[in-house]
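Section handout, structural biology tutorial.
Before the tutorial, make sure you can parse a SMILES string by hand: atoms, branches in parentheses, ring closures as digits. In the record below the ligand is pyridoxal-5'-phosphate, and the chain has 352 residues. In the tutorial you will relate the predicted structure tokens back to the input. Do not try to memorize them.
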Amino acid sequence: MKKFLVGPVEIPEEVLDSMHQPSISHRTPAYEKVHQKVEAQLQKLFGTEQEIMINTSSGTGSMEAAIANCFSRGDHVLVPLMGNFSRQFATMCRAYHLDVETIEFEYGESADPAVVEEHLKPETKGIFLTHNESSSGVMHDLEAFAKLTRDRDCLLVVDSISGAGGLPIQMDAWGVDIIITSSQKCLMSPAGLSFMALSDKAWKRTETSDLPRFYFDLQRQREFNKKHQTATTPGIYNLFAVSKALDMMEAEGFDAVQARSKRLADKLRSGLKAMGFKLFAKPQALASDTLTTVYLPGEAKIWHEKLKQKGFLVGGGLVPYQEDTIRIGTMGYVFDQDIDELLEAMKELLDE
Ligand SMILES: *Cc1c(COP(=O)(O)O)cnc(C)c1O
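Predicted structure of the complex:
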């Protein structure tokens, strides 16, 4: 079965094998070495010289950490909505008693920075942006959004859980304040770890934020990170896996991995369009390079099943489009031949 999943994705054998080794303590040089190496590799992927916080949680944990450490009760924040994951970000901000103003975009559209800018108030403390909306298959130009926050006391907080590793990011050069990702998407590893980096402006906020936190206290985490450790026991085996995956990506070239995702997404989209399939991302949207959502009104479950019978596992649609969309991942361990074979299978099914 060839998998075109959108998280958790397929895990290469080498990555699985890397976990088969004796247990080590997280207070030893052997651990610190892996921690430090992974941090350096993620700095390259994020385009930052800032420290990387390694959290033992899925990506949502780091999203929560960003809110709990850098905001205060009642802060006005903007959350552009364009799908399920951005919606969840808004719900989390509300759970932490932020004053959340959502800006609705149609499913299939990317959020427009010019429209978001119109909602900025002098007291706005943050914009929460989903880099790559994994439900609808659209992505965003982080540099354009960072321009909105760069010169004010407002943080650009980016959920790049299905982006980082697959999409280019220049956190420092663009002025992004917080980048978050997790292990089970473009990093082609088991779920269980998430990673985040904070700008100086975001670190400064951790000194004044009044929200409760303990497990995800980033200042405490930072103290331990100086020694290449974590405050509490990390998912050590997960880190072995991520370390191996990053080595594989670095051997191919981080830029080359991203170029491959883009090339495969282009090939997939043009192949699908040529056969008459409709893409869910609207023509004016920035279609995602790590996952493509195909619009199959009323027939998504049938296509999902038929593809499975042919040996291809794709991602199902998300509410409310679970009957109308399938999602095909071009993140992680997917190559040209896989996309060619998938397109061929879809053509055969169409002919039947
Ligand atoms: C998968 C995903 C999440 C959820 O991440 P978890 O690691 O499951 O917590 C959030 N946002 C986006 C864009 C995602 O793709």
